[in-house]
Amino acid sequence: MISFDHVSKRYGTLNALQDITFSVPKGQVLGLLGQNGAGKTTAMNILTGCLAPTSGSVSIGGKDVLLRPREAKRMIGYLPEAAPVYDEMTVRAYLRFACELKEVKKSAISGHVEAVAERTGLADVLDRKIGNLSKGYRQRAGVAQALCGTPEVIVLDEPTAGLDPRQNSEMRNLILSLAGEHTILFSSHILSEVQAVCSRVLILHHGKIICDRTLHDMQGKEHRLRAVIDSCDEKLLPALRQLHSVLRVEMEANPNAALTQVVLTVDDSGLAERELFTLLSALQMPLLRLAPVEDSLEDVFLRATMDETV
Amino acid sequence: MFAIYRREVQSYFYTSAAYVFLGVFLTLGSIFFGVTNLASRSGNLLALIAELSYLWMLLSPILTMRLIAGERQRNTDQMLLTSPCSLTGMVMGKYLAACTVLLLAVVSSMMYACVVAVYGKLYIGETAVGYLGLVLHGCAFIALDLFVSCFAKSQMTAVVLGFGVNLLVWMADVLASAVMIEAISQALDFISLYRRFSPFVRGQLSLSSVMFYLLFITVMIFLSVRALDARRWSEA
Fold first, then answer.
1. Which of A38, A166, A172, A173 has the least C-beta neighbours within 10 A?
2. Is A307 an interface residue toward B (CB < 8 Å)?
3. If you measure CA to CA, which chain B residue comes closest to A51?
C-alpha cells in the first residue's frame, strides 16, 4: 500500500533521510520509532506530499506521490504533530471543510461528518468552536479530519504528544479501532505506545533504518524479569544461573543492602517464574518482588544495533 | 478551490480581519470624501478614487497576511498541502477570497457616489472607469502581498514585508525619475502600478493598463504557486 524506494532527503548538508526503502502492506499498522531528529516527520511529510525527496520515490497504492499527487493524496489522511485546526471554526464546520477538501460528495457530507464525529468522540462538541476546546479534543478533531473521506492510508505523527494519560489512552484506543480497516503509519518516540498499537516497528536513527521487524520478532524469544529477593547469600547467584530457563543474570544496585536485586533474562518456555519460586522456596529466600522489565527505546536501539541489522 | 474560497471568506468575518479592513477603509474614505468633495462642494469622484487607491497600499497586507503565512504559523498548511486540491487551486481560492472582501469595501464606498448623485451631478461613465481602476489596483496589491506572504513564517512578518514591498512599489515612480541608469529607470517606470492607475483617475479606460494589471496579477499568482512548490524541495 505504501512504498518507499531508496528515498533520501537532504537539508543543505544535513542528511535527514538516507536511502530509505520499505513497504507497508494493506491493513498493517506500522510504528515509526526514533529519537527527535531521527527523520520520522520528514519521512511522513514526504509520504504525504508536503515535502519532495531529494532522490528516490514514494508511492501510495501504486501511485507516485510526486508524479500523480492528486490520486495519491486522495488515499491519505494526515495528522501532523500539531493538529491542523482552525480555532475560529466550529468542529462541524471544520469537518465539513475537511470533507470538501477530500472531495466527499456534497450530499454525503453531513452524514459523513456525523459518523466521523461519533467515531472520534466529538459528537458532543460538534457545534463548539475549536479554539474553546481542550488539547485532547483538538487532537481528536485533528484525527477526525484525517478520517474524512475514508482514506485508505492514515498517517499519524506523534498523535499523543502533549496529551494527559487519560487522553493518551483514549487516543490509543481510537487508533486501535482504526487498525485493519486502514493502513496506518504511526510515529512516536515512546516505545510502549508503539507496542500498544502497532504490529510492526521500523526504527529510524540519523535518517537510516536500523531496525525493521514485527513487534513479536523484535521482542524475540527472550524476556527479562526484575526480582528483588530478601537475601544476600552468596549461594543465590550461582543457584539462579543453574535454572534451565534462565539465560543470563545481572546484578542491580538496591538501596537496601540486605536485599538482592537481579535482572534475569529468561527464555520463552513460560517456566521461569515457576522454577524461580521453587528454587527460592527451597533456599528459604523470600521473593519480595517479581516484575517484567519494560524495554526502553535505548534498549531496543542497542539490541537492534547489536543484532547487526544496520 | 471553492471549499478554500468559502472557508477563507467565512474566516475573514469570523475573525476581526474583515472588520478592521472595512472599518479603516470606510473611516478614512469618509474623511477623504468630506475633505475632497463635501467641504469643497465638488462632485468629482475621481479625485476621491485617487486618494482611496493609496489605502490599498496600507490595508492590503491585513487581508493577505493570514492567507499563506497564517496557515504556516498555525500548521494548517499541511492539511491543505496533503489534500487532493492543487497548489494553484489553493492559491486561487485564497486570492479570490481576499478580492471578495476588497470588492465589498469598494461597493460600500459607492455610497459616496450615491451622495453625489442625490445632491449634485454624477458622471457615471468616468466614475465607473475610476472604480474599475480602483478594483484592479487593489487586486494587484493583493496579488503582490499574497506572493510576499509566501516567504513569511508568521503573520506579523507577512504584514511588515507587505508594507515594505508596497512602499517600494509606491516609490517606483519617484525612483524611476531619480535613477540615472536608463534601463533601471525604464524598468521601474514600467512596473509602476501608480503610473498604470493614472489613466483611470482621469476617467480614461486604458486597455493597456487593464492588460498590465491582469498580467501583473497572473504573474504574481503564478509566482506564489511556484514559491509554495519550491518550499517542498527546500524546507527544513
1. A166
2. no
3. B232
Q: What is the pLDDT of residues A186-205, one digit of tens each?
A: 888 777 777 778 888 888 88
**Which residue's entry shows cell 516505545?**
A191
Are A73 and A210 within one domain?
A: yes
ipTM of predicted assembly, 2 dp: 0.83
Number of domains comprising chain A:
2
Locate the domains of chain B by residue range.
2-234
Domain with A274 in it: what CATH number?
A: 3.30.70.1340
Between CA A109 and CA A93 the distance in angstroms is 11
Q: CB distance B82–A48 less than 8 Å?
A: yes
Distance CA B96, CA B108 (A): 18
User: b/e string for A278-294 if b means 16 or more Cβ within 10 A?
Assistant: ebbeeeebebeebeeee
Q: Which chain B positions have a beta carbon within 8 Å of A101's beta carbon?
A: 3-4, 79-80, 83-85
Distance from CA of B88 to the nearest CA of A (A): 13
Q: Do residues A156 and A260 both lie within one domain?
A: no
**Are A292 and A202 contained in the same domain?**
no
For residues A164 and A296, state if they share a domain.
no
Question: Could you tell me if A50 and A106 lie in one domain?
Answer: yes
Q: Which three cell numbers stand for residue B170?
A: 509606491
The reply to whether A212 and A260 lie within a common domain is no
Residue A85 in contact with partner chain B when CB distance is under 8 A: yes
Exposed e or buried b for every residue in B34-56, given b needs 16+ CB within 10 A? eebbeeeeeebbbebbbbbbebb
Closest CA–CA distance from residue B18 to any residue of chain A (Å): 14
Residue numbers of the domain that contains A264 = 220-306
Band of pLDDT at residue A225, cut at 50, 70 and 90: confident
Residue A25 and residue A150 in one domain:
yes
Q: Which of A74, A78, A87 sits opposite B84 (nearest CB)?
A: A74
Q: Is A102 touching B (CB cutoff 8 A)?
A: yes
Q: Which residues of B touch A48 (CB under 8 A)?
A: 78, 81-82
**Ordered per-residue pLDDT tens for chain B, 236 residues:** 889 999 999 999 988 889 999 999 999 999 999 998 888 888 889 999 999 999 999 999 999 998 999 888 888 988 898 888 889 999 999 999 999 999 999 999 999 999 998 988 888 899 999 999 999 999 999 999 999 999 988 889 999 999 999 988 888 877 877 777 888 888 887 778 888 888 998 888 889 999 999 999 999 999 999 999 888 777 54
Phi and psi torsions of B101, nearest 5°? -65, -40
